[in-house]
Amino acid sequence: SWHCTLSKMEAIIGLPYQVLEVPNLKLRKPSWVKMPSPMVVFGFVLVSYFLVTGGIIYDVIVEPPSIGSTTDESGRSRPVAFMEYRVNGQYIMEGLASSFFFTLGGIGFIVLDKSNAAGMPRLNRILHFCMAFTLIIVSFGIMRMFIRIKIPGYLAE
What we know:
By secondary structure, this protein is mainly alpha-helical. The protein is 59% helix and 5% strand. The protein contains five helices and two strands. The protein has a two-stranded antiparallel ribbon with strand order 1-2. Helix 4 (92-114) runs antiparallel to helix 5. The longest helix has 29 residues, at 122-150.
């Protein structure tokens, strides 16, 4: 039965091509267009990861302030970086700080992967492992602290 549906769908989609003819164009790539190097692609992916995990889409749509403010017991206004009790809301600086540590943890996993390269000297391998685990553990600890600041009482021991 799905084969019959597929052929009907092909007939519907192919209908315009029964009337129209695809032009025979001889397009060439300009000589100045080159394939980007792997590190350029990696840099683009890393920057886009930083921006997306930082909530750039939320920041563009909602336009939150860069930092907030709260009033303490004596009536003075003091700045705050985390929008407490709002899981779905953030200040711009909060998003950038969180994004920095997400990216730092991701770089830790990349370094951990690179430490398994063939032919790497033992000392370099150990240094790569130490640096990778340090980046991952620091990132995890800071993000856990950020959650505790954002949602007081969460993960309480």
